[in-house]
Amino acid sequence: MGRGPGFSADLIASLTRVLAKWTAPEFLTAVAAREGVDLDPGAITMVTILSKDGPQRPSQLAGAMVTGASNVSKIMARLDAAGLARRVPDPSDARAQLVELTGSGRQVAAAFVRAGTGLVDELLEGWPDADRVAFLRLLGRFEQSTVALSTRIGNSKRPPTTPFTTSKEQ
Q: Which domain holds residue 42?
């Protein structure tokens, strides 16, 4: 069971659909709005990262958000204007600055956690406790495998590949 024809394709298709829904801008803003938070998706992402990982340099935020420095600067300006984040000197390098959440920003991050908890409770409504526990255990195991593979792939020294071509182009 689970290794037959189509299993991997079905799993990938399901994960892709879930990720697409969970990362869609409309979904993010709607979930946050359930707790009275009105922020754009980029701001939601930045607040979440700062809440989870603490103060960071803008370049670190850009990497974590998979975006450019100019976009981070624009998002930071919106969060600063809303009183949710601020720039502070980097104690390890006086020339650099860190972005950190304010008290209001931490309150908004807590609202995101409440919204996420409510969302998961709603999604798993009607699931028996045993299924919830099994899902969490298996998802955690899948996450560990994903992180391990990502580390191996990232650390492997592979030669550059040539651009993809189809047989018709050759």
A: 8-123
